[in-house]
Amino acid sequence: MINILITVIKAIWFILPAYFANASPVVLGGGTPIDGGKKLPDGQRILGDGKTIRGFIGGLMVGASIGVLQDVSPEIAEMVGGKTLGILHGNWTLGFLLALGALLGDLAASFIKRRAKLRRGQPAPVLDQLDFVFGALLLGSLIMIPSWEIIVAILIVTPSIHLGLNFGAYKLGYKSEPY
Ligand code: CTP
Ligand code: MG
Question: Which residue of 1, 23, 58, 144 could cross-link 28, Cys pair, CB 3.0 to 4.6 Å?
Answer without folding.
Answer: 58
